[in-house]
Write a structure and sequence with these properties.
OB fold (Dihydrolipoamide Acetyltransferase, E2P), alpha+beta, 38% strand, single chain, five-stranded mixed beta barrel, 11 strands
Length: 190
């Protein structure tokens, strides 16, 4: 689940999951496109964002006009234009605070039955896309992958929703632990 600016979104992204950064220009909760499934529509710099009741309730603080946001979702078609079915909405201000509070990410290979050398290579390539200051640790590594695990441990990343959601597709939520600056286990914002 990669991140792009709203201006980069095209129909070639149909069916993919993306994080889109931009400004909410308008919010509608009435009209012909509002239904039981889509209770709110957002205008993200000209791109329609469909929001379900669950997402609207969970991310109510971030769904405001004229603040920079990062919206995660599946890209769909709206006539001749791309649209987004939201799964998350984060204000960039809150993300900035959250990112600074994460000290370490621990990846646990025993939490996933599919954690093999191929998955670890994907994790390494993914971590390289998000350089930052957060330490990465990996535990319970398969015997044939210790050298690769050492390379993963040397990476420092910026912990953000696109990285977290991508890691969960590889290891599952149980395979990722996050620790805050004070050393306590933290829960990621979903």
């Amino acid at each position: 689940m990669g991140a792009i600016w709203v201006s980069e979104l095209t129909l070639k992204h149909l069916g993919s999951e993306k994080f889109i950064a931009g400004f909410i220009e308008q919010i509608e909760d009435e009209g012909p496109l509002v239904s039981d499934e889509t209770i709110m529509l957002l205008d993200l710099e000209g791109v329609m964002v469909r929001v379900s009741k669950d997402v609207a309730e969970r991310y109510a603080k971030a769904t405001r006009i004229n603040i920079p946001v990062l919206i995660g979702g599946t890209i769909e078609r709206d006539g001749e234009y791309p649209a987004i079915r939201a799964i998350s909405v984060f204000s960039l201000e809150q993300l900035h605070k959250d990112i600074g509070a994460v000290r370490e990410i621990v990846l646990d290979c025993t939490a996933s039955h599919k954690c093999d050398r191929v998955v670890l290579k994907k994790i390494y390539r993914l971590l390289k896309q998000y350089p930052g200051e957060t330490a990465v640790n990996i535990i319970n590594v398969p015997k044939d992958s210790e050298r690769l695990a050492h390379k993963i441990k040397k990476r420092r990343v910026i912990f953000c929703p696109p990285l977290y959601f991508s890691l969960t597709t590889l290891l599952g939520e149980a395979g990722i632990r996050i620790y805050s600056d004070n050393g306590e286990k933290a829960e990621p914002r979903r």
